[in-house]
């Protein structure tokens, strides 16, 4: 993507974000009241399984570290800890994702069994999980499948390409970590009540322009939307037309995630709009840093 196109995209995105946040400042509550459907299959599916980019960027990064360590096995002082660290990171993140997905799945099934709206699941704490045996089997199967796919993808890559992917994975992981930290800090600082947490009178609703401080409520900004938007980062690991398609998929996926969060009553419009564009900004900044610091250096050599 040329610098001119990047500049135009940045300006257009800023204008859209300002307009949507301006609308949300006056119509957040009305929009939520008009869109909420706690029985939405679309909203429940995205709520349950949609945060995979946060976890699988780390998984991919860990797997790439393992492959790099194997390629550099003659340097044992580097290869052994890198292999162990990459293995631990990827395995742990698969487990964390499966824990979250199973927790939301069980919550939805429990709601259906009890005659409640299936999408009513606590977005801030886990509500339950699979048995240890089932969780372990599922974890092993998923991890082995992911590992097999990565090994198949990387097997014919040159050492130089593997090195590039390792550097990309470091910057990708940094993007996820930074996004998680900022999103969590803003959630605590804003202390905004979620739509489904509002009282019957809805007098505890506050505008996104009004931070409430730490109070246990975490509506603003949306964590799921952040996770969905991070799907864009997968495009970094592709080239040519595939990279463009993955980038476009990430952009659309993040938008669909945000829409799903409003429909399921977990967030207001401003929560998802702010999160979407803030995360996109983080992605742009870190990728630009990679291009300036790493890509230019690789070209020189």
Write a short abstract of this structure.
The protein is about 70% helix and about 0% strand.
Indicate the proportion of strand residues: under 5%
Radius of gyration: 21 Å
Number of helices: 9
The biggest beta sheet, please?
Answer: none
The class by helix and strand makeup works out as mainly alpha
- Domain module tally: 1
Please provide the ordered H/E string of secondary-structure elements. Answer: HHHHHHHHH
| Average pLDDT level | 92
> Shape, please?
globular
Distance between the termini: 23 Å
Domain Phosphatidic acid phosphatase type 2/haloperoxidase: 166-287
Transmembrane segments: 9-32, 52-70, 77-94, 130-153, 165-186, 220-239, 246-266, 272-290
InterPro entries: PAP2/HPO, PAP2/HPO_sf
Keywords: Membrane, Transmembrane, Transmembrane helix
Give an overview in words.
The chain is mainly alpha-helical and 301 residues long. Helix 1 (3-35) packs antiparallel against helix 9, helix 3 packs antiparallel against helix 6 (159-190) and helix 6 runs antiparallel to helix 9. The radius of gyration is 21 Å and the shape is globular. It has nine helices and no strands. The protein has one domain (36-300).
Considering the chains and any ligands shown, give keywords for the structure:
Membrane-associated phospholipid phosphatase; membrane; mainly alpha; transmembrane helix; 301 residues; globular; 9 helices; transmembrane; PAP2/HPO
């Amino acid at each position: 993507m040329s610098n001119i196109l990047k500049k135009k995209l940045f300006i257009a995105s800023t204008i859209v974000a300002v307009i949507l946040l301006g609308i949300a400042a006056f119509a957040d509550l009305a929009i939520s009241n008009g869109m909420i459907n706690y029985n939405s299959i679309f909203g429940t599916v995205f709520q349950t399984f949609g945060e995979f980019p946060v976890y699988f960027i780390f998984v991919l990064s860990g797997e790439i570290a393992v492959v790099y360590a194997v390629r550099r096995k003659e340097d044992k002082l580097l290869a052994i800890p890198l292999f162990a660290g990459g293995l631990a990171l990827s395995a742990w993140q698969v487990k964390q994702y499966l824990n979250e997905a199973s927790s939301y799945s069980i919550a939805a099934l429990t709601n259906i069994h009890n005659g409640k709206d299936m999408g009513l699941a606590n977005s801030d704490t886990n509500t339950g999980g699979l048995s240890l045996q089932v969780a372990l089997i599922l974890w092993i199967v998923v991890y082995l499948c992911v590992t097999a796919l990565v090994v198949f993808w990387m097997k014919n890559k040159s050492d130089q390409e593997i090195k590039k992917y390792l550097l990309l994975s470091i910057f990708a992981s940094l993007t996820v970590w930074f996004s998680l930290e900022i999103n969590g800090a803003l959630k605590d600082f804003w202390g905004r009540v979620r739509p489904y947490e509002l009282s019957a009178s809805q007098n505890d609703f506050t505008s996104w322009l009004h931070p409430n401080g730490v109070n246990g409520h975490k509506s603003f900004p949306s964590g799921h939307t952040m996770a969905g938007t991070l799907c864009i980062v997968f495009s970094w690991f592709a080239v040519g037309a595939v990279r463009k398609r993955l980038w476009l998929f990430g952009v659309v996926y993040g938008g669909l995630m945000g829409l799903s969060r409003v429909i399921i009553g977990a967030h207001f419009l401003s929560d998802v709009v702010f999160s979407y564009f803030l995360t996109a900004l983080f992605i742009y900044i870190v990728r630009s840093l990679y291009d300036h610091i790493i890509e230019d250096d690789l070209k020189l050599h």
